[in-house]
Amino acid sequence: MKPQTKFFHPLSANAALNISSKVIQMCSEKKAAHMGGALSITDFLSVYYSFFYDDIVTSLYYSKGHACTSLYAALAHFNFFDSKELESYSENGSIFTSHVSHHVPGVELSTGSLGHALPVASGVSYAKKIAKSNHVSCIILSDGELNEGSNWEALLFIAHHQLPCTIVIDYNKLQSFGKTNEVLDLEPLSKKFEAFNLECIVVDGHNHSEIFEALSSPNNSPRVIILNTIKAHPLKYAMNTLESHYYPPTEDQLIEGLKDIQEHYERHICK
Amino acid sequence: MRDTFVNNLIELAEQDKKIFLVCGDLGFNVLEGFRDSFPDRFLNGGISEQNIAGLCSGLSREGYTVYFYSIGNFPTLRCMEQIRYDIAYHNANVNIVAVGGGYAYGSLSTSHHATEEIGMLRTIPNIMVSAPSDPSEVKEIMRVTSTNPSPSYMRLNRSGEEIINYHEPFIPGDLHLAYKGSAETKNKAFVSNGAICYEVYKDLLDAKSADDLFSLPLIKPLEESSIVNKLFQYNEIIVVEEHQLIGGLGSAIQGILYDHFSASDNSYLPKVHRIGIQDTFQNVAGSQDFLREKAGLFNYRNHI
Asked: How would you write B52-87 as a 3-class SS string?
């Protein structure tokens, strides 16, 4: 797969519409949790796979494995497998487990226990660097996940060796049992990364052109992209709620949610 | 053992350009030879074992045969979940090597006593677990693990360990006859691994014992049928290990023998006496031998 190099909003907006819709359908049908965190990262995944993913020189490590529905739906949308296969999601015997599985085509690493993907990707990036490869690893972390010390060990290592990787934080400011600033405050977050000697860019995580710009910046050294996001975006009934981490949509909420998603993205697609 | 490990690794790395050594900021006066010979295949990852275990998995994804070297609990218990998930579940080619097995770093305190790691690692799928009994078995184990793409763990003692004159070639996962007793009929056999095996060996030699001693350096996976065939010839088995009794060599032997007994029509089962650490910590300073004595590990001598 080769990336498009020019930003074309309808392309990523169409992806986001499909992926978000699939996420809430999967959560509704299978009564699955973790819808909120899956929706907050959908826009990033849509832009990344639309314009930047290249199986030769990039790889994606998805550390927030609980938010698996958006990654599975993204991989289906970008033809890693037939989206019909997602019908088995979370069923007995399915490879589509409810935390990300590397048995799924397109998935690099199984994740689900937090704080694992950044260390693994740092090893990959180190090997790529000494091989003088132009490969760039992209690692997506949740905000709550930054509570895990292993991430900070890896950040020290990545900064020290100036490894070519893009570290993306889905900063929706809600973790499992409360707000991030009430459970274990991350602020000042961008200053923490800067203090580690890491370049840090803060963008609106639902604005595709801002995401595109951030990913387009030079990437021969490590960079952190903090995505200011909203949990369960763009579902009006569920946005910015802790409940969206747990409850799947009811039948009515699914209908309403699909409408919200349609309304939110079609203005960009029809442009 | 650690010198055998590093010298052997240098030899292997000369042949195999994919061998990569990672340490967690230790190895002073041990790892310099490797570092200076292969600077681009050596990495000091700093004091960060969780990150190192993960990054070793990452390095292996890029084709390296990775060795992760540190002391006892640090590359094992400290990062057990990374071993399970990043290394074992993804079947990464990462070989963990710990120096200071058992009470080898006796006086350095409980933080440095590696007395539970074998039991914990044995329960994890895909990973080979070993505790070689002497430097020659370190080489044998490395011959197996360096060519096997699955993960492994190897427990070393320290340095200066002596060689055992084995009576038969090493077979991975099988009993390795270390001392052949004078008895015409097989009555008692000792089974051990790790550095304490050498202590048993020395005592049996000194006593000109009639009983046999087997080393079992590769504790997982095991050649179960061969072990069963050999050990069912004896009336009594004495298992000696520098590890908690729970989950260690003795429980592995006991499990195999009892499983075989339960599945067969055989009404005979050899007695198994297990000598190991009895669910305790050592909270005083002491040499390796002092702590072994205190933990009752030398009680195997009552069977000689």
From this structure: HHHHHHHHHHCCCEEEEEEECCCCCHHHHHHHHHHH
Q: Which residues contact A225 (CB under 8 A, 6 or more apart)?
A: A166, A167, A168, A169, A200, A201, A202, A203, A211, A214, A215
pLDDT on residue A36: 98
Whether residue B93 has pLDDT greater than 70: yes
Decide if B164 touches A, using CB distance below 8 A.
no
Model-level pTM?
Answer: 0.96
Whether omega for the bond prior to residue A188 falls within 30 degrees of 0, making it cis, is yes
Contact A113 B85 (CB under 8 A): yes
Distance separating alpha carbons of residues A186 and A178, to the nearest angstrom: 13
Nearest to B62 among A127, A149, A153 (CB): A127
Q: Which CATH superfamily is domain A9-269 in?
A: Thiamin diphosphate (ThDP)-binding fold, Pyr/PP domains (3.40.50.970)
Contacts of A123 in chain B (CB under 8 A): 54-62
Domains and CATH numbers, chain B: 2-155 (3.40.50.970), 176-303 (3.40.50.920)
- Find the closest chain B residue to A63 by CA distance: B86
Check residue A5 and give its pLDDT.
74
Which residues of chain A have a Cβ shorter than 8 Å from any chain B Cβ? 102, 109-110, 113, 115-116, 118-128, 130-131, 149-150, 153-154, 156-157, 160
Average the pLDDT over A160-189 and give the result: 97
Please determine, for residue A2, whether its predicted confidence score (pLDDT) is greater than 60: no
Domain ranges of chain A: 9-269
- Cα B97 from Cα A18, distance rounded (Å): 48
pLDDT tens, residue by residue, A125-165: 999 999 999 999 999 999 999 999 999 999 999 999 999 99
Nearest to A29 by CA among A258, A269, A270: A258
Judge residue B270's burial from the number of C-beta atoms within 10 Å of its C-beta, 0-12 exposed, 13-18 middle, 19 or more buried. middle
Write the ipTM.
Answer: 0.94
